[in-house]
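During the no-cost extension, the postdoctoral fellow (Dr. R.K.) reprocessed legacy sequence entries with the updated structure-token encoder. One reprocessed record is reproduced below for audit purposes.
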Amino acid sequence: MKTFNARHLACLSLLSLNLGFGSMAFAAKTDLDYQRLRASLDELHNDPSLGSFATAEQTLARQAVDALLLGGDAKTRTHLIYIAERRIDIASVAAQTEAEQTKLTQLEREHDKIMLQASQREAATARMDAEKQRIIGLAQAEEADRLRAEAEVSAQEAEASRLEVDQAKRVAKAKDTESSAGRKEAELELALMRSRLDNLLITQGPRGPQVRLDDLAFSGGGLKPDAKKHLQKLVQFANQNAGKSIRIEGYVDNKTAASVAQKRAESVRDALVGAGVAASRMSVSGMGAEQPLVANDSDEHRAQNRRVLVIAENNGG
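Re-encoded structure tokens follow.
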């Protein structure tokens, strides 16, 4: 009887030991599954491009992974592992979908922005073309009415210049797409100078027909390089009055040295000589600040007074 009991106890001990090892192996397997799934979920969460998306799906996946820690039989654990894997797959796909949707939304916004900028550039170009036609039309109308008094013509030109510069500033401000407003304003001033030189207004002065070169055509004491390329109308004026002496008078404002007036007049003479007008026909004089068109009480008025007058003198002067 004692032998039977001892043998029975030994068998029971061996069976208990086997069951204990089985439980430990199963627990170790469960830990490995949990660690694997948790690592996959952490990798998605820490992904800089996907981690911030599909937060609800990630939460559900994390809950499914944590459910493995609650225990259960082998069948239950297998089911829980399957659920956790699917939840992680769903969270990953949802995060990728949201990320792609975000990129698509950004691309659509950039497309809308580009289309808006293109529309603004087209509108600005149309305004500039319309303004150019308006300036040309105004110059032609003034030329047709050249017998009006010089003072009246000067006042009209001053008002037109103010409107043109204001409009140029508005256009430059609307076109801050590609370059600074300062450069755009300089380009518009250059276009305005070219337009005025290409459409010189001939007026009848007390000494004969005359044309006036505005301050825009000069830099310091001489003609701007680009202005020299647009003197065809001035050369034509001199050639149309071939039988007359040409007098060139330079004027400045009360804040500019009188020598500048002389130098500007000489630069106009030199340009005409270069274009084939005989130097013997021309006389040059720097008038300084004499005979201002308007009072020297503002930068705009002083700019009007800085000018060069080219006169085809009647009766030989």
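The chain has two domains: 2-109, 127-316. Residues 74-144 form the longest helix (71 residues). The remaining legacy entries will be reprocessed before the final report is submitted.
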